[in-house]
Amino acid sequence: MVVLNKIYTRSGDDGTTALGNGDRVAKDAARVEAYGTVDELNAFVGVARLKSRKETDVALARIQNDLFDLGADLCRPDNDADQDAESPPLRMVQQQIDRLEQEIDIMTGQLEPLRSFILPGGKKLAARLHVCRTVARRAERLTVRLAEAETVNITAILYLNRLSDWFFVAARMANNGGKDDVLWVPGANR
Question: What positions does the domain Cobalamin adenosyltransferase-like occupy (predicted)?
């Protein structure tokens, strides 16, 4: 259980922060950039929820919880030699990806196939979900970059990849089942 009695500790005043295993690293370290962007994504999901209806809101609430799991995964090095058997690090699991894929398949089954790329926009919720999609892609890129230098749970990367797909399809659903998608017209302003 987490207990936060004091929000500021001054321990980060020197430009470092603690990872989940207690190691201190620079606040701009690749690992901190990755899980910090996941936190940013979670905040954008919270904004999207302001305009979501029940079924979408329930799914977004699950995603927010998953994003906290993902942040916990990323803030604890995967090769941590000090792993406690009684309190193992929280890691993303395949079941979380499977759920996203099932939801994507259900939503996609209700949409007409795309015949053009779409521009981010349309309804307010759709536009907010497109922002979530792009931040998820950035989090994915940063996590891939982290994985080039350090050991990372591959399931974390796969989750982010699938999550951005989920946001894309959910944005289409929010655009009146794709009817209000804003289509890209190549060269339209030449």
Answer: 7-174
